[in-house]
User: What shape does this take?
Amino acid sequence: MGKPENAKRRTLLFGLAGIFTLVTDREVIASDNQEDAIKQPDGSDDASFIARAFDMQRQAIESGDQAYGAVVVRNGSIVGQSQSRVVINRDPTAHAEMEAIRDAARRLGSRNLSRCTLYSSSPACPMCEAAAYWAGIERMIYGKNASEGGSPRLCQ
Assistant: This one.
């Protein structure tokens, strides 16, 4: 017997240490690990999301890493966020944008980040812009003034 066509698809994703995330229609809605849940900003505009990217930047500085932060947003909610982890992870690819993209893909259970916007404390480097392109991110916003970075493109 099949499911009704209009039934919502619910999937339980198991992560590290048995922590799970409930996903409905591919959007993160709950997490048993409250430390892992993303606290959403009061506003859902470019200024609010850029402010969170700069919060991530501040956390990077406090942890002794490079001064960068980024968030990934879909449908007015942050679905991934990170500070730079290049120094603390000893990983030259752990830029804030790359880590935020990885976080969003993990939380959404998909590498497809279409309908998402990447907000970052500075313009994306070529590596991060290429990752945003391959993830399907539609738009990039950067800097204190929330400058429009356009759609990510591959370096030519």
In short: Residues 46-62 form the longest helix (17 residues). The chain is about 25% helix and 25% strand.
